[in-house]
Design goal:
Pfam family, one: Glyoxalase_6
Strand order of the largest sheet: 1-4-3-2
Radius of gyration: 16 Å
Strand content: 25-35%
Protein name: Catechol 2,3-dioxygenase-like lactoylglutathione lyase family enzyme
Number of helices: 3
Organism: Saccharothrix longispora
InterPro entries: Glyas_Bleomycin-R_OHBP_Dase, Glyoxalase_6, VOC_core
Shape: globular
Order of helices and strands: EHEEHEEHEEE
Number of domains: 2
Largest sheet: 4 strands, mixed
Helix content: 10-25%
Structural class: alpha/beta
Length: 142
């Protein structure tokens, strides 16, 4: 018997804004909201009814959704203990970096040093994530 990763929950001062940012990054859509934007769930554009999606979850790992939940406090001034590694699939890393900064990401220094193959960024609320190498056809870097 095993479990599946169904969703990832992130605390947010402004769940709608953070959900919109991550929708732009990942190409996700909003699944729904609770209250007056107190919680917002986003995920891959669903292509099947809930029953089929649940059957797929039981069968094999799937891409998780994300839930942003309103909290009163902002991110603490410390490196995240958990962060996302994202990878461009149809552009090179430089083009994706430009797209992500246009969406509101900022470059941050968490002590990674110079000459890394990845770029450390923060979302609009300061949560760090890494932009890794591209998986686009014809583009390869370590």
């Amino acid at each position: 018997m095993t479990s599946r990763l169904e969703w990832i929950t992130l605390d947010a001062r402004d769940p709608r804004t953070l959900a919109a940012f991550w929708c732009g990054v990942l190409g996700y859509v909003v699944y729904g909201e609770r209250g007056d934007g107190d919680a917002v769930e986003i995920g891959p554009d669903p292509e099947q009814p809930d029953e089929e999606r649940l059957a797929e979850l039981r069968d094999r790992p799937t891409v998780p959704s994300m839930v942003f939940v309103r909290v009163p406090e902002g991110k603490q001034a410390a490196k995240n203990r958990l962060h996302f590694e994202i990878t461009p699939v149809d552009s090179d890393q430089d083009a994706e970096l430009a797209r992500l900064t246009d969406l509101g990401a900022t470059k941050v220094d968490v002590g990674q040093g110079e000459g890394r193959s990845w770029v450390v960024l923060a979302d609009p609320e300061g949560n760090e994530f890494c932009l890794a190498r591209s998986l686009a056809p014809g583009v390869f870097s370590l």
